Amino acid sequence: MLHDSRIDLLLLGARGRVGSAFRERLAARQAALRREAGLDLRLRAAWDRRGLAEASEGLPPLALEAHLDVFDATALEAAIAVVTAPGSAPCLLIDCSACPAVADRYPDWLARGIGIVTANKGANARELDFYRRLGRIARQTGTPYRFETTVGAAIPLLGPLRDLALRGERVRAVQGVLSGSLGFLLERLHAGAAFSTALAEAERLGYTEPDPGEDLRAADLVRKLLVLAREAGFGIEAGAVEVTPFSAAAAAHRADWRERLAAEDALWAQRIAAARAAGQRWVMLAEVDADAARVGLRLLPQDHPFARLPAGQNLVRIETELQQERPLWLGGPGAGPAVTAAGLLSDVIAAAEALAGRAQAESKRRSVAA
Ligand SMILES: NC(=O)c1ccc[n+]([C@@H]2O[C@H](COP(=O)([O-])OP(=O)(O)OC[C@H]3O[C@@H](n4cnc5c(N)ncnc54)[C@H](OP(=O)(O)O)[C@@H]3O)[C@@H](O)[C@H]2O)c1
């Protein structure tokens, strides 16, 4: 008979875009996962900067409001202490924030056996030593640490790279179109829109970071490249990435770059006209190989797979020692709360299965010893 394995979920960033989409997907799949996978996933605690909710038998994922108390950091640590007390079900923290202070806590949480599933690329894009330390603690304690959605949302990119590393197939080069916001801007620019108009549209549609200067400086893309490169076996630091920002004004004038957009309108009009005349398209590419890591604009023939990509899609080309002539291509929708939440649930299922297996092995060991 299949016994349900109870796993307690702690959801951080519960009412953000990704956190809300995750609660919807969890609500839709909770009963089926119990039936089909023997996993009893309970939303044990949920919080954001405005409120904290906790319930010993699990919160209704779609009706948090009635359970929320005002958030304070001591209440959060107290809630974590309660859910990790000896005898409690194994637990999994799901980080749907972009908060660096939260990522600071990962090493401690992992060391205490709390599994982590994260959409927040902040932790793995820090110093190489911090990234390696997280992997080491997870391995040594047998605690799951999964972050597939941090690059390419629901596209399985990091899992295949990890598999290549484990089977000893060296990755020679990775290239990718990984930015939804910059892809959207380029599509509008090639359709004839002025740079300032395309940027205003991207902001209105919610495609950019809260500070669009982050996108235009390519800072978010550098973080994605770092995670991808490190998982592919290139142990690089952020300082090793050569960056050509999307907008020189946004990179050079952090405070008042918006006042300089008119000059960029003229520059982009010239660039697009020249590209069109040459049968080419601008693409914002992130790439790494043994010699260099780069993020920047590239002109490619119009029929190149990266140049033909519709806005919102990501595409990655992986060249390995065994796959040079015919490299591996992986692609799909690279952002959006619904697809990111779907990817998070895949990570949660894999991590929950690992925690359930660990709990069953421990209980067997205890009963043999008794
Ligand atoms: N949106 C996407 O398509 C996408 C795709 C892949 C990965 N991601 C990543 O997913 C994460 C969330 O993105 P989002 O679009 O959902 O952002 P969002 O809508 O701004 O939501 C962020 C959430 O995090 C909460 N938060 C921030 N700091 C916190 C803290 N210290 N403790 C607890 N909660 C905290 C916020 O709380 P308040 O609401 O109270 O401020 C909010 O609920 C980011 O790391 C992003 O890079 C997003």
Task: Give a short summary of the structure.
With 370 residues, the protein is an alpha/beta fold. The chain has 13 helices and 13 strands.
Give an account of the 3D structure.
- The chain is an alpha/beta fold and 370 residues long.
- It folds into two domains: 5-154 and 338-369, Rossmann fold, CATH 3.40.50.720; 158-333, Dihydrodipicolinate Reductase, domain 2 (2-Layer Sandwich), CATH 3.30.360.
- Helices cover 43% and strands 21% of the residues.
- The chain is built from 13 helices and 13 strands.
- It has helices at residues 17-37, 73-83, 100-104, 106-111, 128-141, 158-166, 180-190, 195-204, 212-216, 219-231, 248-252, 261-277, 337-369; strands at 5-12, 39-47, 51-54, 69-70, 91-95, 115-118, 145-146, 171-177, 241-243, 280-289, 293-301, 313-320, 328-333.
- A seven-stranded mixed beta sheet has the order 4-3-2-1-5-6-7, sandwiched between helices.
- Strand 2 and strand 3 (51-54) form a beta hairpin.
- Helix 7 packs across helix 8 (195-204).
- The protein is globular.
- It starts with a strand and ends with a helix.
- Residues 12-13, 15-19, 47-50, 96-99, 101-102, 119-120, 149, 153, 335-337, 340 line the site of NADP nicotinamide-adenine-dinucleotide phosphate (NAP).
